[in-house]
# Entry
Amino acid sequence: MPNGRVFSIEEFSTYDGPGIRMTVFLKGCPLRCMWCHNPEGQRFETEIARSPVGCISCGACFNKGAELTGKPSLVPESASVCPRSLVRVCGEDMSPDELCAKIEKNIAILNMSGGGVTFSGGEPLCQAEFVLECLTWLRGKTSRAIQTCGYVKNDIFTRVLTECDYVLYDLKLMDDQKHKHYTGVSNEMILQNYRTLAASGINFITRIPLIPTVNDTAENLSATAQFMREVGADRIELLPYNKLAGGKYRMLGRDYVTDFDEAVTPQTHMEIFTKYEIEVKVL
Amino acid sequence: MTEAVKKALAELRTGEYKKERINNETYDMTEKFVDTPNELRSIAALEDMLAHETPNILKNDIFGFNRRNINTPYYCNSAGRKIRGGGGNLTPNYIHTIESGFEGILKEIAENPNSGDSQKVVFYNAMKRFIAAVLEISEQYRVAAEASGNARLAKALAWVPRKPARSFYEACLFFKIIIYVLRCANMVHLTLGRFDQYMYEYYKKDIARGVSREELLETLELFFISLNVDGDLYIGIQQGDNGQSMVLGGYDKDGNDMYNELSELCMEASLELSLIDPKINLRVNKTTSDSRYEYATKLTKKGLGFPQYCNDDIVVPFLIAHGYEEKDALDYTVAACWEHIVPNCAADTPNKGTMDFPGAVNRAVHEKLTSCADFNELMRHATAAIAEDCDAICERFRPKGAPGTGNSHYSPLSLFVDGCLEKGLDLSQGGAKYYNYGCHGAGIANAADALAAIKQVVFDEKAVTPEELLAALDADFVGYEELQNRLLACPKMGNNDGTVDDIACTLMDAFVNNLSGKPNGVYGGIWRAGTGSAMEYILTARKCPATADGRNAGKPYGCSFSPAITTRLNGPLSVIQSFTKFDMKKIANGGPLTMEVHDTVFRNAEGEKKVAQLVKAFIHLGGHQLQLNSINRDRLLDAQEHPEDHKNLIVRVWGWSGYFCELDREYQDHVIKRTEFMV
# Structure
């Protein structure tokens, strides 16, 4: 049975599907969206994050590394010695049984609110076997959702869909060249899987993180709306860019670099979706 | 919001009217009353106070009865101790007087067979003197209102408080007169109680004679504004702790929902005004509709720190089990903070003493750990320590002489507590129906966490010896940082962990079994156990040395019934499950689970709905009381740096809401530290 690598579990997630959602964030993503606000979800490897604000530079974290490996460095054990709790291990390996046992403890409350579980990331379908195992385990117990960028082989996607009750699907950019530039990959497979999803009869919602000047143009949103109509999708949620997006890069020792202007307010162009008779909501 | 309300709100917010107040710091009547009989000194002091007061009606005010003098007079009790009157933290019976008028009350006294009793004539005369003083100041207000062209107020005062109120406005005015005068006797914790129930007849009458809902909303909003005018003067422990709590909704004995149009109006007024008073407590139960929770969540979103939720399904059985008549239990209200009390007829003191859970456990650990063969033995010593402390609390608060003798003064409050007038006995002499004591229970999570950590580290893993652990505690973990981290990483209450939650239940059982129902020595009263901490999560904690949960000496406990502040929580679903495992019907004196929800959770209607679902889940799981705060941490931090930009920032600190910038630094820090559940 495959183990999964999880970087966070949120018990009370209010924007990841209907009702109260318990959201499991799986580590590792094939995309490198320039605006990604969860940098600790990008790499599959376990990482050690050290938040800068409030650090008193006591050196305990690096000393722990020196003690264990011979050279001053961050090690998983550094987390427990930081007097300010600023060091955190991102990425915990667990079996489907372990994860589902955690979920099961909350199922009664989740169900009471019409909610359930959402697998997010990172990209949950990067760990498709693990996710599938969990989804199967949870069948009939609660509502099961995935939040995906759709960048996965169609046969895998199709298999996972059979165990989903709800899907949140990102359509980031319709222009393939731009998609490659901003996310690092082509959107071909993503659009193909979207067709599969629309044809599957499974309840789903489309989402766009609205990035100023990148994908909030009338051109891109019209193309999105047109494509949605074409496959028969009728609901979309727009998530305007949040300036806090870069907030977590420093703790990983990385820089947040973008080539778009963060200060510009994203355009929602609600009228475009209304014109195509698509129900649109801004989150 | 009407123009009149906007104007009154603006006047309140500028605070200009405060310049008209007289700062009479040295108002000392000790000498003057030295020959006054002891039991009449409080009445004499009140008369003196009212003689110093002059009518104070704001420009956009239809209620008046605002304080001129900041302080009430000092006088001394028979032991020679200087006091300023006081008393309260109960819900008086306002409506009986509002419906009778003071003339009606005087008639009641005259017709009472006891009023001829020579033993009781002094009491009745004291009450009559009180009424005369109220009528006197009311007449002064009538004249002043007329002179200033405030026709509506002048006209109403030509009728009330002598005669029974005839309209919703007159009833609210009557209410304001009563609390104004009682506060002139320095009673600061008078709660509004079930305002939506006892005022409902007036609401219906007005509607029936053609007054519109809008007009009534305006009157109610002006009344709420009026309650805020002097709110800063009636402080208990800190600003905001003024007792002006209001209870809405609740079920009757047949399970009928009593939430009515007036309850709705109160919620609407509170939502529109965003004022700190009155603080709303919502009575809910298994049948409460989703829409009720959703509307209440809008109020939470305002960041006022209320509503606080109380669960009828828990509180009513708790009260009945503690000897309250069913009709009284069903009528329960909330005292200044969270104590569940019954209105009209009780003189309970719901905040006597505190069970210091971490202190008791720590004592057991220090005295017995080295001799314990296994963890169960340590648990037995911990529960024995709690039992000892229960006995000590009962002993400490047992009245030394016969009750009602010694230092008691006749209290004007007796006029508003059922039974006193009828029996001719003051509150202090047994005139009321209930004289129970409530005891707080502070730091349950820290105590359970400490034992769970010892179980794991000392007994299960055998990673350290009892001696090493005690040495680390004695050293406040200096030089034992690694052990401290190990203890901090053990299972904690709030994460829905069976082991630690079971330990907490055992400790609470020890508390309940050794305290609840024990006589308190006051007119047949008994003890009730609760989960509040009042100030003790800071004050007692300050004196408590390092504990085995990894907490350093002097650091605060979790506030009331909440996780320890250093606990890294899984999230709110685990928290509400951890804190509903115990049968709360046994320990419902009051003391809420407190959770902060970051304001981003409320971004849209969907977020609001989900927060409402969380509250509902807590109630369905058997939670007794919940406080939900909407706090943006960044805003709080900025407020510490730039208080000038955050003057209206209100937080519920423990039982009450206060202006953040007015709180001591230590309290500010605590609010900031409480774990947030961020999206």
User: Anything to note?
Assistant: Confidence is low (pLDDT under 50) at residues 675-679 of chain B. The first strand of chain B starts at residue 75 and ends at 76. DSSP finds 25 helices and 17 strands in chain B.
